[in-house]
Amino acid sequence: MADIIQLLPDHVANQIAAGEVVQRPASVVKELLENAIDANSDSIKLIIKDAGKTLIQVIDNGKGMSATDARLSFERHATSKIKSADDLFQLNTKGFRGEALASIAAIAHVELKTKQDDEELGTTIVIEGSEVKTQEVIVTPKGTSLSVKHLFFNIPARRNFLKSNTVELRHIIDEFHRVALAHPSIAFSMFSNGNETFNLPQSNYRQRIVNIFGNKTNEKLVPVEETTEVLTISGFVGKPEFAKKSRNEQFFFVNNRFIKSAYLNHAINSAFEGLLKDGAQPSYYLNLTVNPQTIDINIHPTKTEIKFDDEHTLYAILRSAVKHSLGQFNIAPVLDFDRDANLDTPYSYEQKGMPSVEVDRSFNPFKDDTPVSKPTAIASPSFKKDTGASWESLYVGLESKGTKTTKDFNEITFESQPENESIFKNENEVETKQTTYQLNNKFIISTIKSGMLVIDQHRAHQRVLYEDFLRHITIKEGVSQQLLFPLELHFSSQEIALINQLKEDLESTGFVFQSIKDATVLISGVPVNVPESEVSIILEQLISDVENEVPDSNFSATDLLAKSMAKSLAIKTGQTLTNPEQEHLVNRLFGCKEPNVSPTNKTTFITMTVDELDKKFM
Ligand code: ADP
Ligand code: MG
Predict the structure, then answer these.
(1) Which of 12, 57, 125, 157 could form a disulfide with 147 if both were Cys (CB 3.0 to 4.6 A apart)?
(2) Residue 207 maps to a domain
(3) Separation between Cα atoms, residue 237 and residue 283, nearest integer Å
(4) Minimum-distance ligand to the CA of 91?
(5) Do you know which CDD domains this protein is assigned to (predicted)?
(6) How far is the CA of 473 from the centre of ligand 1 (A)?
């Protein structure tokens, strides 16, 4: 029998490829705008007629193309942007497939005009359905203009599939927004059927958002900034009270590329938990910068989905950064401390100073006639011995210095360490004034410039421990203390299954499992701050918490583990705290990302301003 396999002619192959690249006019808009950006333009104009069905034109002032390049640009797999597959992991450009122009030219009438800066004359090429009609030398300004007419002229089925002009224009505007938001330093304008619909001058990010979404947007933006080793976040979220039902204003950009991610969207939603009305969607405009080597943008032909190496960590950092911003926004007017920008780095390894609540040191609600100058509990040499197990957990890792892991651990955990030390080194300092008071072995009272702070000690400590654990789990840096004899615990088979499921996260906090067999768990190491006697209680608590919450994925299991351990280990109501213990707790609380609520969303402190107090005395 004769051979039957033949190679498809180029124009057919291009038409097939076009099906992937060009779904609708908006796809052409995206490709052309991205090419203009890749050409280093600083001003880009988009012209649309009949929602792109009649004309899509992009004019840029970028670097243009030589006559040869102009011709080559329409060949399939013709790209100036990558040379080898390795380059895919170093991408700094939008395009890289070299398919867009070839695809577009296969299914439309295309006219290109382009000129490089150092040339007198430019080139114009007309192509219809992959066929070059003309190529000529012309006079044209620096940059490139590409017009796409009669889209899908040779594929009537595709043409008939297009939606109404309103719908197609909506898609085009969405693409335009995405590209314009990702590049505020480039001026963009858009004309539709002869009317200027957008005119966006070069600006900063906030102005770009406002120029696109309207002046009212300005007051609703809450800045989000976070720098860690793996991820930098900058941008804005919308204040909760402005949230609408639509998801129109949700933007993630990764390395200046718009992406969609249900998972990261979930991180934002969970940061807004409890703040939104039912069904309301938070708005966000967030730029994430990661090392290009840690992402793979190549998994989706239209490139709005990307794959991250370590999504869990990004999730945790993003969620915490947004929560922190929202928290700051809520409490900033009440508390009088300036936000320390260094605070924004919970997951980095940099050593940080600890911000503290600005305390009015002369305030003393229980002041009697004697001046407050007697030594406080700070000087008590028996301090360490007095302290209960839970209290030790405030000083995670302080005891065992020297080993390398412990050192790293301290760097991560004890942002406030220098300050801790000064608390304890102050033994001779008799001048130290008392600035916190414990009420009913339950509340810690402290002062701020504008009034008084009442802190729930149990909830506050839960918050502190929760963020510690979450940090340890996320960066897998928990430190364990070896047990002399392994601890043997017994569980049901269902419970064993749960422990197995959480094993990795538990290990990140410092647990070491010697074996998990049948109904018996042998534990040979526990996190440094966890007393051996508490281990079985912690695990039981954890199992019951997990069973009640039925986490459906890893990240909520992590969260649950941190919550559960924090709950088990936090200072209880009824426990007496010395003065330095109180102060330390207060400082650690306000070093938290989200000091105002416990891990289970309960209020950790309230403030009472002098004004409010004055009213009570009227
Ligand atoms: P890709 O962008 O993936 O490289 P395209 O088909 O979109 O593939 O473009 C092919 C090539 O044509 C690009 O690599 C670039 O060199 C050139 N090109 C396309 N548009 C422009 C433009 N507006 N300005 C300068 N060069 C361009
Ligand atoms: Mg391109």
Answers:
(1) 57
(2) no
(3) 6
(4) 1
(5) HATPase_MutL-MLH-PMS-like (cd16926), MutL_Trans (cd00782)
(6) 44
Report d(CA 174, CA 197) in Å as an integer: 13
Identify whether residues 458 and 561 lie together within a single domain. Answer: yes
Say if residue 392's pLDDT is above 70. no
Residue 189 near residue 198, CB atoms below 8 Å: yes
Residue of 61, 93, 101 to test ligand 1 pocket, by largest number of atoms within 8 Å of CB: 101
Contact 115, 146 (CB under 8 A): no
Beta bridge partner(s), residue 196: 191
Pair (124, 196) in one structural domain:
yes
Residue nearest to atom 12 of ligand 1 (CA): 73
Task: Name the nearest CA neighbour of 231 among 167, 151, 291, 284.
Answer: 291
Write out the residue range of the structural domain in which residue 190 sits. Answer: 10-200
Q: Please check whether residues 184 and 285 belong to one and the same domain.
A: no
Query: pLDDT-based confidence at 289, cuts 50/70/90?
Result: very high
CATH for 25: 3.30.565.10
Sheet holding 443-448, edge to edge: 436-439, 443-448, 451-456, 605-609
Ligand 1 pocket mutation, candidates 28, 60, 79, 127, criterion most atoms within 8 A of CB: 79
> How many domains does the structure of the chain reveal?
3
Residue 6 has pLDDT above 70, yes or no: yes
Ligand 1 shell residues, CB under 6 Å: 31, 35-36, 39, 60, 62-65, 73, 78-81, 95-102, 144
Torsion angle, alpha carbons of 75, 77, 79, 81, to 10: 170
The answer to whether residue 72 is domain-embedded is yes
